[in-house]
Amino acid sequence: MARYEAARRGEVWTPPEDRGPIPRSVSWLTLEFEKAMQERVAAGLMHPGTLKQRRAFYDRVRADHGEKAMQIPRAKIVEIRDSMIATPGAADNMVKALRACFAWAIERGILTENPAAGIGKLNRGRGAVPWSVDDLQQFRDRHSAGTMAHLSLTIFMFTACRLDDARRLGRCHERRIDGITYLDWMPGKRGSARVVIPILPPLAEAIKAQTLVGPTYLLNGLGRPFASSAAFGNWFRDRVAEAGLEGRSPHGIRKAAGELLALEGASQYHIMAIHGHTQAKTSETYTSGVNRQRLAAEAMELLRGMKW
């Protein structure tokens, strides 16, 4: 009937799905923001993983609220967040994604206020669980030297790099400085600083133990570089499960490396150089507790000679 009525009016009928989103609706706003993010990715100003993550959140919002006015009420955003309480980290990232979209719209005069601003987090934990020395040993007991799993753990431990950086590292990042081989790379996370660290013997041995050599250190079952951080993350998660470990992630190894460095006396600035941080407060996570413990021990030494 819609086709018939359009024909009587002398119009060409267009299916609803081809007409595009309703102007100034939630769908319209989020799709416009996605276009802007694609341009930022192309210009090297945004990591592709950020776009992918936010697009997944916007798809979910569009499915439930796509035709509504783009100025989502604050109460509705809180409701969306609370509906995801089973995955608090994802719920907080949903709010963060909406906040970024509204901030973009405000800068361009599309909106005048950000309804997602000031909405609290559900996930107030410490994030990824740092691997203990026993965790690291249990993983190595299951995945011996020479395996790709052993190499992946060694890379994480002796570079403290992020998951996406680990899958991209290879011999092209090796650099000889004063007779010492270094790894030199620019982390993929926006705002990070370049990292140049020596390849310590455990990592050098793990690399040499590999019989399969490719453009990257870490290769999938077909002997090729992992296509994405998600593919590598899924593969590593399976290796963790095979080792009988639960709730352990690559980021937890990065945190373990930071805490072990602090325990060995590394300063915030040492850890900043290894982790690629540009803000001291980021590395303070690893040193604050250790520094307090050291200061407390030194202070108690002042009482050692007291007669009681």
From TrEMBL:
Keywords: DNA recombination, DNA-binding. InterPro entries: DNA_brk_join_enz (IPR011010), Integrase-like_cat_sf (IPR013762), Integrase_catalytic (IPR002104), Integrase_recombinase_N (IPR010998). Residues 126-300 form the Tyr recombinase domain. This is Tyr recombinase domain-containing protein. The lineage of its organism: Bacteria, Pseudomonadati, Pseudomonadota, Alphaproteobacteria, Rhodobacterales.
